[in-house]
User: What shape does this take?
Amino acid sequence: MRRDVTFRFVSLWVMLVAPLTLNPASANTRPAPQKISTLPTVSGPIPVNDESRPYLSSGGALETEGYVEEEYFLSGEANVYEWAGEGSELDIVAGPGPYTTRILVVRPRDPARFSGNIEVNILNASLNVDNGSPTDFDQMVARGDAWVGISTKPVTIASLKRFDPDRYAPLDWSSPVPEEARCESPTILPEAMLVGSFTAISKPETEDGLVWDMIGQLGLLLKSDERERILPGFSAPRTYLSGVSQSSIYLRTYHKGFHHRYRTPNGKPVYDGYLSIVAPAMARINQCSDDVPYTDPRNIIADSEVPFMSIYSEGEYWLGRYTRMPDSATPKGGVVTYEVAGASHSRIEIPGVQKRAIRASREDIQKSLPSELGRSQQMARSLPFTRNDFIWAPVTRAAYRNLQQWVVEGTMPPKAPFIELDCTQLQVKRDENGNALGGVRLPYIDLPTSTHIAVLSDRGGMLSVMGTRYPFTEEKLKELYPDRAAYLQKFSSSTDKLVADRWILPEDGEAMKSAAAAAQVP
Assistant: This one.
């Protein structure tokens, strides 16, 4: 286990550039992992009044939709793990120790409206506060789906306690690791993701690695009759684990090490499907362990008992070039991977479309953050920068609907080729307009009006999630499109084909065409 952590830029260079020599696989003599079926306990719903409300609360806005929003505390015992060998097996290195985290539950008020689908979202901690929302809020409400968000990092627990010390006093992520075995600079994030990041490291007295048992025990709760505590009168659900960015590396790590361990009494998995968005790599298994190198085979999910969808932008190719997972899907399960050409890390929305989401106000965020982090993040937002505004949020919404159909009906999702990379430097191949070849291709890349550069650095850190674009000149636009009507006709045909092939939803297709018609270029 790692006991001394620094920002080692030489090690970072070796990890990303130098070839990795793997030790021979150890003999498969380890006993089968013990199946875990211990349920957590639930407290709540936590009262809401004029003085106290949940962080990330919608403030009652969901009531008109016939939905209930509640907050609960989840308590149990969790271990600290370390990888054993080079496969998916684990050793317990500390624990079990007690924990208390929180969950947000958004559900139909009337159980009869319940569709049977629950999205369990690993709330994102990249800005040191909880952040997360249903992948498709409108679909959730229209279909009668439910959504559960779980707090999954000690730094966000600390932010919750700054937001409301009394309400969140019971939350506890205390480390079961003996004091003499703790490290000085703990973090669960791979080192490359920390370069230039505003993400705070954790504390020696807490432990990031408790998160895996929390996620698994939440799944057990939802699959058991004890779900009545948070879903009164609801039938047995289908559960989908989702994660975006940092939360996606949690999701992939959970799938690799814990999917086969957490089982219902009848031997079924506690999560029926996975949706991994914009982070094709793994977290450290505990906050004092070493990185899983990107070239480590553990990063590749070659097969999955249940449907697993991995979606990332061209902006993550610096990771994806090492961790690509070839499609291996059947109607019952497997893996499908999408790489969106032209897109950067942020899921940009269709112009003019205001999609509903669960968001914290600026005031709530500032109240929750340490003052120095709040100032740093505000400075980052004010830096002059030409943003790559490539629109690709619709791909994730369609992917989630396709995932549901895959789980419920066995309907296979569409497949796409990878973004093309050269064979030596593993850099993106580009067309005559400077845009990427291959991948999931939206009209903005096949009928371009700009060159889209998805990243400013392929060595990790904040620059690896930022991109830029270079608008074409008027002369270039006239060369490509004889007139505006010709462009719009091609755009409409391209969009309609994407809808027919299930890459985007019909309502998003209409919104994309309307936005193109209203745009000033070409």
Summary: The longest helix spans residues 393-409. The chain is about 25% helix and 15% strand. The two ends are 56 Å apart (CA to CA).
